[in-house]
Amino acid sequence: MIAGRRGAIVGAALLVLGLVLPVIPGVYIVFAIDLVCFALVAVAFDVLLGFTGLLSFGHALFWGGAGYVATIAIAHGVTSFPLEVLAGVAYAFVLSAAVGAISVRRSGIFFAMITLAIAEIQYFLAYQMIDLTGGDNGLTVATRGTFFGLSLEDDHVYYYLVLAITAIATVVAVRIVTSPYGAVLAAMRENENRAKSIGYDTDRFKLAAFVVSGTLAGLAGALYAIGNRLSGLDGVDWHTSGAIVMMTILGGIGTIYGPMIGAAIFQALDFFVSKTPIGDKTNIVMGLVFAIIILIARRGVVGELMHRLRPSVVLPFEDEEPILL
Amino acid sequence: MPSISPDYLLIQIFNGLVNGGFYALLALGLSIIFGMLRIVNFAHGVMYMLGAFVAYYGAQLVHLPFFAALIVAPIVVGAFGLGIEVLLLRRLYSLDPLYNLLLTFALVLIIEDVMRLAAGALGSPYQTPDILSGATNLGFTVYPTYRLFVIVVCLIVCFAVYLAIERSRLGARIRAATEKPELTRAFGIDTRRLVSGTFAFGAALAALAGVLAAPNTNVSPTMGDSIIINTFAIVVIGGLGSIRGSIVAGFALGIIAAVGAVLYPPISNTLIFIVMVLVILFRPAGLFGTAERTA
């Protein structure tokens, strides 16, 4: 579904959906901005989980960390949007290279635990460095800055800018996973020892995937924080890492576009449930939905749909039962 | 560096022992569960929280005394854990253990918010039992009696569980089922029941820690949130699945974190994770783990 003409059609359809999203009655524009940012972080996460089988439980490290850096840049007088984003992305890039270097050699539970631990270190640093981050209160900034002279304070302007960036980033992600490099990743995921014996330095390939994933997650997080003119401890909390995992699996591991839809469903569900009498206890429903997905629909919404429509198309992790490596 | 009086350091070591006791109890349960089921149980912190709530509601509704709660809460929460294992976790054993990790994460979200709905988010105090309130003179300082009680109970329970697993017949079966499940089954031992029992027992240990924590902390739906992540780190440091490693690392990290907080306060929250990263880098199997478990 990702590659070729079919992929282009799905991608274009999602883009059209993105273009009309703000004019759908009942959709708040700020909600739409958040949704697109989460869609991008889910894509970023899928590059790692779907194509290396590594389950990170610490992607809040990049999402929330880059968000902090972007808003800190604004708080220190940066008003150029590209520079704000670049600061956040650069942070995520450097951090993901460093964290990847010590973590990709581990797999399974150890990889999940080490990414979780490092993300917690950042959480406590953000909590303690009050002068820089605002600690418990978070860091609120007055402006989103300007994009080559264009003011971004208007929510619709900002939305379409974020949508454009997300579209480009998604195309980049698709190109990466459908490239020869992506084919090596797929081979490693299916049988790492065989890939090694052919002569591939599998750790380097995994590290590259981790850096791509972390950097794109940072991009999404920076866009999110700038959009809200706020970064806070929520963003670097382990629950956020978990939410990113949930969106990706909800949509469908290894389908790239699936996690975008997963993020949209997740955000919409969260929004609607919060309007019911249970109020901010939305995790009751989110947790139930995720538990059901894990128990009976591990291909995710899009993965299951594809499986029903065309059982002949083999998705990653679909040999017998989907398997996380 | 400011000069630190030896007495103050000694008090901090005792505080570290209290925290370490909680870490050890929780890590022990997590480790037993991991050894048998290969699951990193995110819901372990929830079991801890539920244990505290059983004590709290027991006291509120039926005047359940603290010492009775130490027995009742583990039984109630153990039964709850048993239900979760039988109804949910069991379905995913044939798959990669990460799926069960994710399932227990979903359980955390559900149970925490159900408790927030039922009990409110803010939490409530729980009275220290009269006989343990006040302070005891230790010679160099007076120290809260209740905290000494916590240290003693944690030490006794950890030691008893260690002995039971290393020395008893049931313990031998558990170890056998952990090492070679198929072979153990071939000898006619019902490993399924061992697995269920192990999960329930781990949950009960967490609940016991929760009851012990109740008088010390605010009983709230999120009280297990941060301690569980620390405990994950401790279990990895001790060696995933290693009983001895969990107990030693629990107490050791409790003390190290407390002393570290005195010497360099900003590091107090992160020290455990820094140690964990170092351990994974240089001794991936953990301090007491076997190489086989690094996968």
Instruction: Give me the CATH fold name of chain A.
Output: ABC transporter involved in vitamin B12 uptake, BtuC
- Count of structural domains of chain B: 1
Number of strands of chain B: 2
Oligomer: heterodimer
Order of helices and strands of chain A: HHHHHHEEEHHHHEHHHHH
The share of residues in helices of chain B is 55-70%
Rg of chain B (C-alpha, Å): 19 Å
CATH topology of chain B: ABC transporter involved in vitamin B12 uptake, BtuC
> SS-based structural class of chain B?
mainly alpha
**SSE order of chain B in H/E notation?**
HHHHEEHHHHHHH
Domain module count of chain A: 1
Largest sheet of chain B: 2 strands, antiparallel
- CATH uppermost class of chain B: Mainly Alpha
Q: State the distance separating the first and last CA atoms of chain B.
A: 42 Å
Distance from first to last alpha carbon of chain A: 22 Å
Largest interface, with counts of residues having CB < 8 Å to the other chain, equals: A-B, 42 and 41 residues
Spatial sequence of strands, sheet with the most strands of chain B:
1-2
Q: Strand fraction band of chain B?
A: under 5%
Quote the average pLDDT of chain B. 90
